[in-house]
Amino acid sequence: MLAVAAAAGVASVVVLAQGAGAAFDPASNALGASAASAGASGAPADALGAAWTLALVVLLCLVTGVFEEGVFRVLALDALSAACGDSPRGKVRAAFASAALFGLLHVSIGDVSSVSDAASGAQAFLKPVQAGLFGLFMAALYDRTRSLWPLVGIHAAFNLLSVGPALLAGDVRQTYVTGSLPDLALLAATTVLLIPVAVAAVASIVGAAEGRGVTGGRG
């Protein structure tokens, strides 16, 4: 079931990390400015420089994946699992709590201040919901694998596919709250798509706990 959820989740790759450029902080801005400056210079493309820029973008995506997955899945989820207990209910509570924290990561004062109409308000609301649903899927994957690196690989791939081209082009989006109806429609569609993925993830967590013979205990 988790494999089916993963397949469905892949369909949301591009939009899942929409607005992640803002989460990359000054590093992404520096990369974008550097790429834009190189493009505007009119000088012949420097293959070595282009390769170096690409390597930096890949490294940035990997570092972001290590940080976010290490904090929200490994550290937070392990701590929450210890607090909530090893029962299926406890495992689900821990997964929801870590997913909620991950969703809150995608809310910033800048995004809220960008709200100017119904469309931008809906974007500001949906993005953390979308991130939280994705967090449930990643929590289930971590529960199954107990390894950081598959999570880092998936997270880095999301960021690379969605934000990497913009960084290389020097176009760094500072917020996902654009007020654009097409952007909102895509965000809403992928959020809806992630609902069955999250449901399957919860079922996977419950099934794994029951498979380990944990039916009682705290939670």
Report on the architecture of this protein:
The chain crosses the membrane at residues 51-72, 92-109, 121-141, 148-169, 184-209. There is one protein chain. This protein has 219 residues and is mainly alpha-helical. It has one domain (2-211). It has helices at 2-10, 13-16, 20-23, 25-40, 47-84, 88-105, 109-113, 118-145, 148-169, 181-211. The longest helix is centred in the first third of the chain and has 38 residues, at 47-84. It is globular, with a radius of gyration of 19 Å. The two termini are 24 Å apart. The model is unreliable at 1-28 (pLDDT under 50).
Key phrases:
single chain, 219 residues, mainly alpha, 10 helices, globular, disordered N terminus
Q: How much helix is in the residues?
A: over 70%
Number of helices: 10
- Termini, distance in Å? 24 Å
Number of strands: 0
Q: What is the N-to-C succession of helices and strands?
A: HHHHHHHHHH
C-alpha-based Rg, rounded:
19 Å
Overall mean confidence score, pLDDT: 80
> Which class of secondary structure composition applies to the elements?
mainly alpha
Query: Which outline best applies?
Result: globular
Range of strand content: under 5%
Low-confidence stretches: 1-28
Count the domains.
1
Summarize the main sheet. Answer: none
